[in-house]
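JOB MANIFEST
job_type = single_chain_structure
chain_count = 1
residues = 718
[input]
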Amino acid sequence: MGCQARGLATKSIDLNALTGIKKRPAPSDLVSGVLKAGGRLLIFRIQIPRARTFSKKRTMSIQETLKQKLRDAVAKLFDITIVEFTVEVPPRADLGDLAFPLPFELAKKLKAETGQKQNPRDIAAKLAAEIQGVAGVSKVQTAGAGYLNVFFDRAAYLRAALAGDEKIEPMLGGKIIVEHTAVNPNKAAHIGHLRNAVLGDTTARLLRAAGEEVEVQNYIDNTGVQVADVVVGFKYLEGKTVEQVKAIEGKFDYYCWDLYSSVGAFYEEDKSRLELRATTLHELESGSGETYELADYISTRVLNCHLDTLLRFDVKYDLLPRESDVLHLHIWQRAFDLLKEQRVIEFETDGRLAGCWVMRSGDQDAEDAEGEHEADKVIVRSNGTVTYTGKDIAFHLWKLGKLDIDFYYKPFRVYADGSLAWITTSNPLENDPSHPRFGNGAAYFNVIDIGQSYPQQYVKLGVMAASSDKRVERSAHLAYEKVALSPAAAEQLGRSLSDEDKKRGAVSMSGRKGLGVKVDDLIDQLESNARVEVSKRHPDLTEGENAEAAHKIAAGALRYFLLKYTRTSVISFDFKEALSFEGETGPYVQYSPVRINSLLRKLKDSGIDIDTGELTTASMSAINELLSGDGDELWSLAYFASRFPEVVRSAVSSLEPAHIAKWAFQLAKNYSLFYEKHHVLTEADPVRRALLIAITMLVQRKLVAALDIIGIEVPERM
């Protein structure tokens, strides 16, 4: 029996607001530069906030040391205190490794404060004299109209980079609760759901890589309209009992997919049948009876199907909170009482919202607005049912530990690595006292589609009004745009398109109409294609080895496809593009570490030591010579790879996983050029060969770390 129940515009987020700190903003760096991709020069500027707290034993980086020296120099020379200023990465190695446009900023500030005009280039010369002699810096020079350019001691910098990875200090602190996926447990997951899961999983991985404590939750809406509609389908359209539903074999989530679509047509034929939905919703919220038992079985079995599907992409969860438990354990009631006590909500006695409990926005402009963005947000409907916004407010108050009530917990699934996914329960007899302490977060990040931005705004307003907790300000709705279908993909799925659809270039998916790309179907097709390619290149592999490699390649292709676009970009899904292994794809990035592993094996087989011993014993001047002049490109690759911690901090600052994906692709592309030009196996000079090996191993380490964050495994062979 299939899926049986078993246990490119990026919006930056202000980290001062996220942390709820109202003191002077923390220093930050603006790292900029130029990446070469697809024949184009891509200019990037990334705001990187500095971590707010450091260990006393922590050693400052060269960049941090330089910034402190410049602060001291500005205070000494101009009697000005500066905290934040820009740092740039020049587009070419011959222009330096860091560039400070600080003299321009100072010239403006001095003119504003004193009325005297000062030449930025003269200011740069004075500052340059003050920061000479910093360890790890070979020279400081002025450039252009007033830039302050810094050149590193390349040999010393490379040795430090090879010695170990820089520890990334937490930027937020406290436990961060990341909620993602939240697929309605009423049918199979489609590609749009997968985008949510991949974004959420990658965000959690990213935060952990940045030293944060993370709890991952997948909210299960087992009492909502979508589950109710499938219950209506089984009970009234097909006339099945609970036992008959349990006897259904095969892919249960696929069966429900088709049934859900049929229920939509069932309602269209006779609008009065919508009363069946309303009745069913009340029965689900009651927590008992045959209808509730049927809904519980359906939602639990479909949930297992979803977990099976997402595990193919290594997506796991710590906790599966169920909406039914929010209601049955009176968590909602506790929150409802608090909302009334704090006068966050009001009971309407007349007008179109008579009988409803509503929350006021407090925004006069919003209150005057009409249409879907109305000022009054309904929390409890006139028929007594609680809206999604109301339930969400209650749940988020629990997340932050603001309600003196908790769920009961039981293990739901044991993953292969021994970790557990727990699920909430209303039954105290099922509670396992060994469960971790869930909730009580310092902040929450919710990955929910952009169409829910308005209700999510009210959720945050409601939680803030009820709790008066500054931690709520740190929390954020990580909005993402939908995945639509390209016209070609829609036609492949059997949809007849109008001329208007074809002109739009994208067709919306619809669960109610059964139009969408099921995740399992897509990954099956990807794995089939990958198996063919792996067989061609490595016919000696066993069937099991081939299948394992094909799975890693296919999952990597799909994860990268969903991550290479910024969250706020609409993805027009196309089978050909998603299944491609050429261009900016996951397999392209995977191929670099696979190629490096192969190279390292060949070096070992040839008796060549890969521990870079020659490089360790070589003179610093000899290494610097190899990294200069014609060696600028070697330095550029090593320097680009070493800046991975900056990319992580940037991605955390903007909560944008696409930064990691794009950087990994660029590093893989740069290494490919390096690999084609420099032949490590045949290099005769032992020091130069050791340098090439060291750079190769540095690239490998950083690429694997980046791929781990975006959830892509490296296969043995490709």
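[summary]
The two ends are 34 Å apart (CA to CA).
The chain is about 50% helix and 10% strand.
exit_status = 0
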